[in-house]
Amino acid sequence: MNAENQGCSERLVTAAYVRQGAQGRRAHELRLRALLEQGKCPEDGWDESTIELFLHELAIMDSNNFLGNCGVGEREGRVVSGLVARRHYRLIHGIGRSGDISAVQPKAAGSSLLNKLTNSVVLDVIKLAGVRTVTGCFVVPMATGMSLTLCFLTLRHKRPKAKYIIWPRIDQKSCFKSMITAGFEPVVIENVLEGDELRTDLEAVETKIKALGAENILCVHSTTSCFAPRVPDRLEELAVICANYDIPHIVNNAYGLQSSKCMHLIQQGARVGRIDAFVQSLDKNFMVPVGGAIIAGFSESFIQEISKMYPGRASASPSLDVLITLLSLGTSGYKKLLKERKEMFSYLSCELKKLADNHNERLLDTPHNPISLAMSLKNLDETNDAAVTQLGSMLFTRQVSGARVVPCGSVQTVNNYTFKGFMSHANDYPCAYLNAASAIGIKKQDVDVFLKRLDKCLKTFRKEGKQEKCIDEISASNAATEQLED
To answer: What is the largest distance, in Å, between two alpha-carbon atoms of the chain?
Structure first.
């Protein structure tokens, strides 16, 4: 309410009361002003009324919400369902223009402001999470795999002769398909086993670069967050190799933003060598619906090139979701979630080790993986070939989601490439195992219920195994008796 309307209100309601109400509104407006001036995530989270006021202010700046607006174009922000309009806070025009996802729309000043502020706030949070020297980022309404593809397609124009991407193996389909979709040939570098961990074979990477020729390689495509016993790639060493051979370096940091270790690896890699861009998922790191990612890097001009490669306008939903979330949490709230995740990782590790010991199994030693853990299923695998996959089914039917069981020797073909030992990141990992992760938002109750249900499933297998052994012994005894009688 402006001063003129406030004055009119004072003729209807006691002036002191109106001024008090105006002061209350002023408190909300001061928060909005700080956000607009600084472009940073507030330290303390906002209440929902402030956020909704802010979104309403943005929406009425878009032409589809102008009183008396007359639209005669093919895209005028018309929405037939009121429910859909309210779901999007009437921010209907999306973000960007036909030539650039980061460009301002003349008839959607509010949506454009939303886009700019979201990218600015997210950049602030990336710095907070540990990559202090990042210079640019933008939210893209695609999940991690397609966002990686966008990075590769941008590099194509810089390296027109290149046809290969060096890729230390990680058994996850979307990152593999991202290279195929972009039209490049992945060169798979098998990992090396060090203790229980699967680590980057740096010698094999450099040997392959020399064999193929640096000019024929689009980039090195490395990984931070991953399922144990695979651990984050040796980013610092890879970054140095990329700098030495003048090869771009793209990092798949899918759910690594929540990990200080993963973010430290990226920061150090950029400090000592070369990292061109790193990509992270919105849903995995900020607990918003699936469908968005952040592309970030250390050269603002290169990040702008990637944004210009995106064809057409884009949905504003991922930007809206993550901005609402970060304004609700504030930096203090997000830091608290990161701290709790780290504490839950230690708790999960400790309790899973106890359970493994009770069942004569082993918590695999993977100290370089800060998010995922793996417990061997060696005894289960030796007892029954199908028992490992059956355990996965049992956990799923008991409403345990996210746990992965990985049998030995699984073979799978992805886009005409055959992977032996698929899901284990190696051709022949020594044992079958089960994965569990401590990701952002996990609670102690989640860990306790998971362990209880896993323990019950393993006891069921042990009981069935004893019964089968007893039956086998009885059968063998009966056969021996029959031979003696004959």
So the answer is: 116
